[in-house]
TrEMBL record:
PANTHER family registered for this protein in UniProt: PTHR28255, UPF0303 PROTEIN YBR137W
SUPFAM superfamilies per the UniProt record, alphabetical: GlcG-like (SSF143744)
Pfam families: HbpS-like
Family named by the database record: Belongs to the UPF0303 family.
Protein name: UPF0303 protein ACF05T_18965
InterPro entries: PduO/GlcC-like (IPR005624), PduO/GlcC-like_sf (IPR038084), YBR137W-like (IPR010371)
Top-level taxonomy: Bacteria, Bacillati, Actinomycetota, Actinomycetes, Kitasatosporales
Amino acid sequence: MSTDAPKVPGIPELEAQEARLTLPHFTYEDAWTLGGILVGLARERRAPVAIDIRRGAQQLFHCALPGSSADNDAWIDRKRRVVERYGESSFLVGTRFRAKGTTFEQSSRLDPDRYAAHGGSFPVAVEGAGVIGSVTVSGLPQAEDHAMVVEALERLLGDLTS
């Protein structure tokens, strides 16, 4: 695992990440590549995470690494539902509620057993199509889950546009 916790980004930085990480396309092969990038990052950091990539309702990639558990799959589902509902990263949604002096759990009126606005789920957005899916990591503190997804999407975008 990483010894340096990532800086916790604010709303403007989280919004900029989402604007910047729009992909030119997202195929089955792209999902596999993104999953491989995430598995590589997690293995090199010995991160006990589960990884999930979806396009719409279809799961395109899932991997559970040593140290993860079924609880991580439950967190993936809860964080992913936030992305599906809001069209934004689970970390951005939670950060917006905290910026208003409240929490997602207190103010969203959504069932906390089904929705979690904790970092780690990020929208998969495609140019000209908008949000078409999600990529989610669970097993680390929320800022680290989020940062791992962002790093992987940055690498994938670099590969797709080079």
